Amino acid sequence: MRLYNSLSGTEEDFIPVKPNQISMYVCGPTVYNYIHIGNARPVVFFDVVKRYFTYLGYQVTYVSNITDVDDKIIEEAKKIHIDEKTLTETFTEAFKQDSLRLGSDLPDLMPKATNYIADMIFYINDLIEKGYAYHSGDTVYFRVQKIGSYGQLSKQVLENLNVGARIDVAQEKEAPFDFTLWKSTSEGISFDSPWGKGRPGWHTECAVMNHTIFNHKIDIHGGGSDLKFPHHENEVAQSCAHDNHELANFWMHVGRLNFGDTKMSKSLGNIILVKDLLDSYEYQSFRLLLLSHHYRQPINYTDDLMKQFDNEWQRIKRAMKQAFLDISVEKYQTIEMNEQALEQFRVHMDDDFNIANALSVIYDQLKAMNRSKEVKETARLYHTISLMLHLLGIKMDLMPLSEEQIDKYRAWQQARAEKRYTDADKIRMELVETGVL
Ligand SMILES: [Zn+2]
Question: What is the pTM of this model?
Fold first, then answer.
């Protein structure tokens, strides 16, 4: 398995920290509104990562956090006149529903930041004691300059950051790029700390939840590419200071999904919510769209592109349904796989999750299945394709047929063969109504 590592900037052989186990942490949402289709990309991609590693025999622990304390949450709660807890609970639930509707399994653990405040205070205290953080004014800052390797993930040098950073005179920072670990404030939800009532910084939330949950260097830290800087860079910095390692062996970043060639944003009014998209399209169509692009490349989403992948999915579904019918009618029950095709599929998946190429193996098998005249061959290809689609989180959801349905299907075929078209049409209608066709 070769994986591109954002930290080293190269593809590397994947070797897990602990044999046969994989620890993976992916930055989750800040829960104050519904997620849009750009937010869905990591939700789908890292679900595939877990599915595939599990298929290879690894025991995967997939953690994705819920940020339930943040300035945006406080603002939104004020705006719509509800308390922050109600707001975050509502949208945590909405996020879970959207994830499931996207065909993704929920992560093994979805820790909420507010459940780890005591750990964060402890962690920040450690950083102060080690000289990596300082309390100034109403804020605890991280002393970035103490990390010689700072900028290694986002490939930036401190001097350049220095030029770009705006210095706010109200802040009592030692350096402009020092970031907040704890902010004292009485506004909104706040917690007691040695530095007064306040809230943790976002970068500290993820670093501490990682540290507390796994307590060792993990295998994969993932998220959207827009999180690389400053969020992930600052997670790396804290972990280097606190634990002397970069938090994760592999840093994986998923490219952005743009609306056409512009960024999807609230101010431009071009946001498509996941829940709205999935009212119009089946999740499988959208998963196909996402997974047909290399995960590190951006996607320029358009309605036409969505329709194109919806057609693609309908084609796959029809072929699979027909094969399933043929197999059911013949009562063919042996489950065999095309091992050669599976091997090809794995070669592409092992090549830094080249899912687009893995999909081409599926399309080749579909073509062969459509041409197949023998039920044994049809079944072999059907089961192979089903497994590969399953690994991409694309399910067929076909119900086993009853004897009655099989008899009816045979009667339809016979009527057609005997050119009794009125009968055939009548039976066909019944088959469509009961979902057989
Ligand atoms: Zn994070």
Answer: 0.95
